[in-house]
Design goal:
It is a single chain. The protein is α/β, with parallel strands linked by helices. It folds into two domains: about 160 residues, D-Maltodextrin-Binding Protein, domain 2 (3-Layer(aba) Sandwich); about 120 residues, D-Maltodextrin-Binding Protein, domain 2 (3-Layer(aba) Sandwich). Helix content is about 45%, strand content about 15%. It contains 13 helices and eleven strands. A six-stranded mixed β-sheet has the order 2-1-3-10-4-11, with helices on both faces. A five-stranded mixed β-sheet has the order 7-6-8-5-9. It is globular and about 65 Å long. The N and C termini lie far apart (about 80 Å).
Amino acid sequence: MPLSRRRSLQLVLSASAIPFSPLLARAQTYPSKPVRIVVGFPAGGVGDIMARLIGQALSERLGQAFIIENRPGAAGNIGTEIVVRSPPDGYTLFLINTANAVNATLYKSLTFNFLRDIAPIAGIASPPNVLEVHPSVPAKGLADFIAYAKANPGKINYGSAGIGSLTHMSMELFKMMTGTDLVHVPYRGGAPALTDLLGGQVQVMFDTLPTSVEHIRSGRVQALGVSSATRSEAIPNVPPVSDVVSGYDASGWYGIGAPKDTPRDIADKLNAEINAAIAEARLKQRLSELGGVPLTGPSTNFARIIADDTAKWAEVVKFSGAKAD
């Protein structure tokens, strides 16, 4: 006897559901134990703070501990390798940032391929840096500074947080696009570089907004421009560098990644939860205080940002001739 139309439909729907039921169950039960977020830098920096904010938000939303594990060294490469070699089960995540895009070209003997071995999960925020000069520099604005630099090639020192840091690469991109000749003075971190800028030992640098904003407001340094394509809410009177140097954009970014082959259903769940957390007023305000513009959307959008920046910074690394320590 032929099956009834209703019964046939029931069988088809039941059969089609079978392959997906384990995935649905896994997504519903994840996470069933604590999750670690590896941060490739010491505690206390902007990236570490962002990781802790996201970890706390995910803990509250998903009912499991998201534990920050700082594994600094080699400009974040030590932390990256730890994650690359971890099981792709959703229980090891990684705070990825612009340094990973730079390192892909800067370091010649990495044991991993960042674009291939780390799966982007979700963006967190994109904080700009600020181009600032010591008050002794005779420039009333960015156009004046460029003219001054061109009139004094090789005589102006700029500080950075170290070779390959975003503060270094931002200035090398600036040099490349303006044809200026500035002398790089690398430091072991942004704090000592800023100290020497305040003291006049170096004349100019790109620095993170949170560490410089009070010095800008007090007049101890003069802000010439922000590295993003738009103004920052933290210093709204400071224009983007791109107002004078057309097309300039050296925004940083932070986000969450995982080992490649992390199950898609788990990655999608994390993406949705991170986006929802960032949309909440409390977290959005904290990110703004860190100078960050929320970076939300599907993982494919974040993956595109990473790929585009990896290609862009490869050109800047080659232009600068920078070599990893």
